[in-house]
Amino acid sequence: MNESNAIVLGDFIEPESSDFEGSLVFSIKAAYIEKGKLWKSKDITAEFLGDFWKAMLDVEHIKPTLHFVCAELLENAVYHSVKSDYLIKIQLCFKTDELLIYVKNSADTKKIEELKKFVRSVLEEKNLQKLFIKKMKEAKKSGCKKSQVGLITIIKDRGAKLSWKLDPGPEITSVTTLARINLKKKET
Question: Which top-level group of life is the source organism from (predicted)?
């Protein structure tokens, strides 16, 4: 993938290890695990990550938020990965006031315009509840299982900030999704 052709959507920051107090990385080569098993293991992986970071950070609300965000991003990575020998990578990085979750996977370059259009609609939408309802209605009407509400829910209900980095190639595009979770307690 050519770094100079990278497309950034949202406020994406590179995972520079010197900027973090801690980091944890899982990499899975899709060719060695049946896609169905990989799909099922996303919840186990997300549960482990939630438990691990809750214990490390002693932040009560982090486990359910982290579990949901990781499960959703891993589900998308497994669903959209197209090249069997490509790595699906999840990296969690801890900074003083936030947890950054990077999930990297492959995607069919032909489908990237559709992804960019959807991502822009999510990032630009002022009323995420309205977009959520619209996507649910569209999925129901078309009979499609792909409602696209998971990413909306990550922002709307879990308070995460999302961004993407796309490194396009002729057939395969590397997609890195970043979810940033604020660790500071919200003032009431």
Answer: Bacteria
Instruction: Report if residue 37 sits inside a domain.
Output: yes
Which tens digits make up the pLDDT trace of 52-75? Answer: 777 777 777 788 888 889 888 988
The arithmetic mean of pLDDT across residues 77-96, rounded, is 81
| The model scores a pTM over 0.70 | yes
Write down the mean pLDDT value for the chain: 83
- The domain containing residue 172 runs over which residues? 3-109+160-182
In the chain, how many domains are there?
A: 1
Tell me the CATH number at 50.
3.30.565.10
Q: With respect to residue 115, please indicate whether it lies within any of the assigned structural domains.
A: no
- In three state form, how does the secondary structure of the chain look? CCHHHCEEECCCCCCCHHHCCEEEEEEEEHHHCCHHHHHHHHHHHHHHHHHHHHHHHCCCCHHHHHHHHHHHHHHHHHHHCCCCCCEEEEEEEECCCEEEEEEEEEEEHHHHHHHHHHHHHHHHCCCHHHHHHHHHHHHHHHCCCCCCHHHHHHHHCCCCEEEEEEECCCCEEEEEEEEEEECCCCCC
